[in-house]
Specification:
Number of strands of chain A: 2
Strand content of chain B: under 5%
Largest sheet of chain B: none
Number of helices of chain A: 15
Structural class of chain A: mainly alpha
Radius of gyration of chain B: 27 Å
Order of helices and strands of chain B: HHHHHHHHHHHHH
Strand order of the largest sheet of chain A: 1-2
Number of strands of chain B: 0
Structural class of chain B: mainly alpha
Radius of gyration of chain A: 23 Å
Helix content of chain A: over 70%
Oligomer: heterodimer
Distance between the termini of chain A: 27 Å
Order of helices and strands of chain A: HHEEHHHHHHHHHHHHH
Shape of chain B: globular
């Protein structure tokens, strides 16, 4: 028995095992059912690999063209959204951190607004804004990334800020400046290498958010992975289940990677 | 009089020097150009936020106060208090409150069970990642998972029917109505609780338990007199966050409920996509206004309680 569990601050092994076991089992059931569904042979009750095979078959590209198109849209949206985070948010956060620390609370406040203004509310005001966006940039799928850049703000901000707080950014940039480096050099050779983990985490979590986004795309009549999944689930629920499972797995992988990034940072500091 | 002002004078001198802003550059070589140039550096992000966050938010909450042809009206806002819309807000409150409480209790239990497992271990990083996925990115996909589980042909539905002869749908297609939302929402509320409440629970110090033991306290007094009072603001704060999360959630409900609009986000969908009734877009604005009013109150409560928690976490 450890000191902590003797003092009663931590659960003992049995309690921990029971709680985690029961909750874990209950929470695993829907995911298992989703996976099992992809192997079902109609309503009969048998199992088949047909649904998975259909996806790599010769006709797949034609049969699931709209779905693959939608996945393409989501990938493009993920890339452009990460671009917005890297080009607009990241430099601003560095600038505020080093030059305008008095603005840091304002920036934090702005970045967490999207939690209070949920997508379903934002989309009401985005509809007229997109009327203008379409006139300027056309109606390409990528334009939705302007809205997604806002959706990912709280997540991306938190990831980058925790990295910024953990390094002596001001000291590093002052040292580089006093050695004669100009700002682009400071950014490229000094700050960005130190912010690599935060930047990667922000990018991964933005990709995960974009891949799962449904509300804005659906109500602005755009097509992305999630809207296509809902549509195809009416005609071919098995394929919808397959891609839902894969998308959840990809998001899980991305977040596991973020966790690893954080863990390796702490280890290397110790 | 001679002793006290001395340090003040020294620090005053230091403040007058070039190190007045310890976080900025030590010696700005081109003060005028620097400030202009760096302020300009803030404009792209500021413009972006104004265009895609501020303007849409302002539009969303103000369209409710106008008619289709642009004159000011309170009709749409009054529309919120129509019995059928009011009952939608009622169901939204109910679903959010019930799932927030269930999610908070189960989530807190899981957090407790995770105490003492290494924060960097495989178990914790796996649970953290799964929780994030389920809490934040599930949406439509979670609706599919539950249709595959307890839908009419779901895995569990069939198992219960075959093994025990229980018909899950004896009382109608509840999965596709408000009761179904409660079940599916709990599935993403518990993971959200794990993510938000774990840091607070980990902030409990072993020294407090030692002090309690030294003073003759038992495990029970440790939890009832120390841990629970200390954790209460954080727990209630997380509860509010969960409420806000369920209240504003749209994707799962949209994928699950195809008939009617039992909760507010679905009412907004109905008002936005309706092409038959004129002026419905302004009704969507009024609903958005109502939603954001609730969200601001709830999130304000959350931030007040978070502030209280962070006082002892540092």
């Amino acid at each position: 028995m450890t000191a902590a569990s003797r003092l009663g601050t931590e659960p003992n092994k049995v309690t921990r095992g029971v709680i985690l076991g029961v909750v874990g089992a209950v929470f695993a059931i829907p995911l298992i059912a989703l996976l099992q569904f992809t192997f079902r042979d109609g309503l009969g009750g048998g199992y088949t690999l047909e649904h998975w095979n259909n996806l790599i078959g010769e006709d797949a590209a034609r049969t699931y063209r709209s779905l693959f198109q939608a996945i393409g849209n989501s990938v493009v949206l993920a890339i452009v959204t990460v671009g917005i985070v890297l080009v607009l948010l990241l430099p601003t956060m560095i600038l505020v951190h080093i030059q305008f620390p008095k603005f840091s609370r304002v920036l934090e406040f702005i970045c967490i607004i999207p939690i209070t203004v949920p997508a379903i509310v934002l989309v009401v005001g985005l509809a007229p804004v997109y009327g203008v966006v379409v006139r300027i940039f056309g109606s390409g799928a990528w334009t939705l990334a302007f809205a997604y850049g806002i959706t990912v703000l709280p997540y991306a901000y938190r990831a980058i800020q925790s990295n910024l707080d953990a390094i002596p950014a001001v000291m590093l940039s002052e040292a580089a400046r006093s050695l004669g480096a100009d700002w682009p050099t400071v950014l490229r050779l000094v700050l960005l290498p130190n912010l690599r983990r935060g930047v990667l985490a922000a990018s991964f979590i933005s990709v995960a958010v974009v891949l799962g986004e449904f509300t804005i795309a659906s109500l602005l009549n755009r097509t992305n992975l999630q809207t296509a999944l809902l549509q195809i689930s009416q005609s071919d629920p098995y394929v919808a289940a397959i891609f839902a499972f894969l998308a959840l797995a990809v998001a899980f992988g991305l977040l596991l990677l973020i966790g690893r990034l954080g863990a390796s940072r702490k280890r290397s500091r110790e | 009089m001679s002793v006290v002002p001395a340090p003040a004078l020294i620090s005053g001198d230091a403040e007058a020097g070039p190190r007045r802003h310890p976080l900025s550059e030590p010696v700005p070589r081109h003060p005028a150009r620097r400030s202009l140039g760096t302020y300009l550096g803030l404009t792209p992000f500021a413009l972006y936020v104004i265009l895609f966050l501020v303007i849409p938010t302002v539009l969303a909450v103000t369209t409710g106060f106008f008619t289709e042809d642009g004159s000011v009206t309170l009709d749409n806002i009054a529309g919120i208090f129509a019995p059928n819309v009011l009952s939608t807000f009622g169901s939204s409150f109910l679903v959010s409150a019930v799932t927030a409480v269930i999610g908070a209790v189960i989530g807190a239990l899981v957090c407790y069970a995770l105490l003492g497992t290494g924060a960097e271990g495989t178990l914790r990083s796996t649970i953290d990642s799964i929780s994030s996925v389920l809490a934040q990115f599930g949406g439509v996909m979670l609706a599919f998972a539950f249709i595959a589980t307890i839908g009419t042909q779901g895995l569990v539905t069939r198992f219960l029917a075959d093994a025990f002869g229980i018909d899950l749908f004896a009382s109608g297609p509840w999965l596709y109505q408000v009761p179904g939302l409660v079940v599916v929402y709990v599935y993403f509320q518990v993971p959200l609780m794990i993510i938000t409440f774990m840091p607070a629970l980990e902030g409990l110090r072993t020294t407090w338990a030692e002090a309690n033991a030294t003073l003759g306290g038992t495990r029970v007094t440790y939890w009832t007199r120390i841990a629970i009072p200390v954790l209460a603001p954080s727990f209630i704060g997380s509860l509010l966050l969960l409420f806000a999360n369920a209240f504003s959630s749209y994707a799962t409900a949209a994928a699950l409920v195809s008939q009617g609009s039992p909760i507010v986000p679905l009412q907004i969908r109905g008002a936005l996509v309706s092409e038959t009734v004129l002026g419905r877009e302004n009704m969507a604005g009024a609903l958005a206004f109502g939603m954001i009013a609730v969200m601001i109150i709830v999130m304000w409560g959350y931030s007040v309680l978070q502030l209280r928690t962070s006082r002892w976490q540092k």
